[in-house]
Amino acid sequence: MMRYSDIKREAGFVFGHRQIKLTLLVVFLLSSMSLWSGYSEMQEQQATIERLLDKDETERNAVLTHQSNYGMVAYYAFHLTYAPPSPLAFAAVGERDVFPWKHRIRMLALEGQIYESDTDNPELAFLGRFDFAFVTSVLLPLFIILLLYDLKAKEREARRFDLLNVTARNSHAIWSSRVLVTLVPLALVTLIPFIAFSVVNGASVFQTVTVCTIVIGSIIVWSAIVLAIGAAKRFANFSATHLASIMLGVWLVTTVIVPVTGHTIINASVDTPEGGDIVLTQREAVNSAWDKPVEQTWEAFIETHPQWADKTDFDPQRDSSFNWKWYYAFQQVGDQSAKELSEAYQAATLRKDKIASYVALLSPSLLTQRLLTSAADTDVKAMVNYENNVREFHASLRKFYYHHLFEAPEFSSASFKQLPQFSPKIRKTQENTNED
Amino acid sequence: MILNVAKIICAEQWRYWMRTKVAATVLLLGAMLTIAALVVNAFHVDEAAHTRDHLQTEAEQRFEAQPDKHPHRMVHYGHYVFRAPTPLSVIEPGVDTYTGNAIFLEGHRQNSAMFAEQRQSAGLTRFSSLTPSFLALVLAPLFIILIGYGSVSREREAGTLTLLLSQGTTRWQLLLGKLLALMTASSLFLLPLLLACLYVAFSNESALVVILFCLSYVVYFLLWATVVTACSAIFEKSSVSFTVLVVIWMSACVLLPRLGSSVATNIAPSIGKVEADFKVEEKLRSLGDGHDVNDPAFKKLKEDLLAKYNVDSVDDLPVNFRGIVAQYSEGRQAKVLNEFAETRMTEELDQAQIARQFGWLSPTVAVRSISTILAGTSLETHHRFLREAETLRLEFVQALNKVHAEKLDYKLDMNRNASEEAADKAVVGADNWAILAEFDFKPEAGSTRISNALIYFIQLLLWMGLTALLLQAAVRRLNP
Questions:
Q1: Is B291 on the interface with A (CB under 8 A)?
Q2: Predicted ipTM?
Q3: Fewest beta carbons less than 10 Å away: which of A281, A307, B20, B261?
Q4: Tens digit of pLDDT for each residue in A234-273?
């Protein structure tokens, strides 16, 4: 049984220690710095999106006023699609520096456009981001080891160990309360800056609590590991630093070796189509259409769009010199021919992510990182979702233009009021991001 | 004399390591990891080299196997280039997995590289990666700390330090012996890496580059071994030296490189390609649409051409005016595109250089810069790839435009949309497609890479100086 008086005594002791105070200060600074850096990066991304939206609209309106048939508009009008940073993205930048979060697309074959990447500076991505997820998943365990490894040894060396055990009402309670008064401040200095930033950034209470739970869970797991090693009978006669080496070994194995081994195994076991093949297939299909009899393109197109079967005729008067219907039909056929590969590619990405989620069960750090990016909607799943949003949007563009190309109404700029507008899908927050 | 005693001390230290399990485990684990990383990476690089080489040949063959066509259609058909990995990327893959390795080249556009491998890694390798360079730069120092933090303080705590010093061993001899022991131990991680370098040196990589590459790793290991030995001597207790060393490791190897990246993003945010594209388009619009010969932007071109051949209408020109316009506008467009591309690359390089300035604060960052630059896996080499791809793009597009201007009759060309037969006539023979220059990407010449890395060598020299001073201070302060 821990008593208030024990806790008070230990608190006084812990805060009298310069090394502990210093560690807490450093953790506080690191946490604040990482949050500030993530916050300002996300602010910049948000501002970029706003600027782009503005320019995108102007540009498209210019196209609309200059062109006078649907085929030309579809060819020249680009549409901005984007995945805005979620209110928690500042805490876990996640995959946003490797996967694209903005694309400008048009009616041409999508497979030729969707792999274009407007990602960050590769060298900075390679060095990695200093974000809150990194601080809590990689650095925090190290701080926990540093704070707790010599919990008892320090007292033994100072020859106070027996004295402490004797003077405490309950020898067990004294160590528990000492652990508690070390860890609670640690959690506080990590989380208080986070809570402040998440209030500023308008994250919901649920989201904030989720992240706090994940971080606290990770602190508990790591403390348990450290304390278990410290208390293990096998290591009873090891020196404190000897024990710390073992703790660092556990950190090393779980944080470094498990993920890289997992990565190597996953890469070897999950078959992924060569990305280059997708675009090559698509390009072959699109370009060979020019040399093939027109009927072949129509056949493949009508298979997926039977509603336009009677409207494939080409009216030279109306369409002046060029049949846009056929042009967009072979763009569609190009996508169709690469569909299988492209779906397999995405499925492989998701499958690897799925297996990685099992690998994460062996590594508290990886698990923390994955839970945080999942809570912040910056994980692989979120990025693939964005890709699918773009695909859906492209499909709706096609629907709009096919109608106007095949039904062939008179060109009117008023009809563009119905032009589909991209709107990012914000994921509902009530998903399973339970802690470890 | 000094060396003999140092050797004895070194041997003594080894005997201690062999007795204790922790040191032996650490050494074994480190050596195994390094070898595993080398093997896995070597296979991966070898496979990537073959695949990309294969894809490159295939892309070239497909291009040349195209049937008779209108030459402008070939401009839009386009071409792919693939970037083959460099020899040293077996040890330092650098930015390779973060950049795409394929670019689609076509008329009127500069596309970005596609299919970065990192996207397929499910976030597993964002902190760590099974690459020899990560092991050597980030993990090896931790291993050196784990086996060496107590090398001197242990003697002090056991009381043997007094004994050693009173028997006539000088402080320098003692520390050199300990350093020697730590260096020989860490060579277990270093040796596989150096052997791999030696192997690479026999491939087509400049010998000087390989030597400097190895040397920077050797110096890096030496730095850590020195710091560890010095700290172990300076601090009274093993536990203090341990804590201090782990904190140094955390800041130098884990924290500062990332901090550099985040600081660079925030100090010098660069506008992305999508945003830059708007500006490019704005500027391009003022240049005229190369598909439309009647665009007013080409009036001057037309007048000059008519005057040159002394004819009254474009129909009488001995060349196809559409081809001339295409050539002219592609050239002007490429200039604009390159101007923006260069701005973007400068911005990226500026960012990278901000991040690399953290090499003054952490030797890890310094050696990482040297290692990526020398291995040809740095941002600079990636930019070189982009530039070479662009040169190839402009070359083949202009060659096609030349064919368009010289081999396709203007009237047939203007009439091409009238009917299918007319379209079939407005083509040139497939023999005209043999215009692709072979794309065989090589990183910058060794001397260029070395001069790019020069400032980071200076950073490393500074660290050597600082650690030497630290060692000296440790010798001076060494008290039993």
A1: no
A2: 0.86
A3: A307
A4: 877 777 778 888 888 899 889 988 988 888 888 888 888 8
Is B378 at the interface with chain A, CB within 8 A?
yes
Q: What is the pLDDT of residues B464-478, one digit of tens each?
A: 999 999 999 998 888
Does A236 contact B at CB distance below 8 Å? no
Find, in chain B, the residue whose alpha carbon is nearest to that of A143. Answer: B247
State mean pLDDT over B103-125: 78
Set of chain B residues whose Cβ sits within 8 Å of the Cβ of A387: none
Closest Cβ–Cβ partner in B123, B246, B265 for A124 = B265
Inter-chain residue contact B266 with A37, CB threshold 8 Å? yes
Residue B129 distance to chain A (closest CA, Å): 6
Secondary structure (H, E, C), chain B = CHHHHHHHHHHHHHHHHHHCHHHHHHHHHHHHHHHHHHHHHHHHHHHHHHHHHHHHHHHHHHHHCCCCECHHHHHHHCEEEECCCCHHHHCCCHHHHCCCCEEEEECCEECCCECCHHHHHCCCCCCCCCCHHHHHHHHHHHHHHHHHCCCCHHHHHHCHHHHHHHCCCCHHHHHHHHHHHHHHHHHHHHHHHHHHHHHHHCCCCCHHHHHHHHHHHHHHHHHHHHHHHHHHHHCCCHHHHHHHHHHHHHHHHHHHHHHHHHHHHHHCCCCCHHHHHHHHHHHHHCCCCCCCCCCHHHHHHHHHHHHHHCCCCHHHCCCCHHHHHHHHHHHHHHHHHHHHHHHHHHHHHHHHHHHHHHHHCCHHHHHHHHHHHHHCCCHHHHHHHHHHHHHHHHHHHHHHHHHHHHHCCHHHHHCCCCCHHHHHHCCECHHHHCCCCCCCCCCCCHHHHHHHCHHHHHHHHHHHHHHHHHHHHHHHHCCC
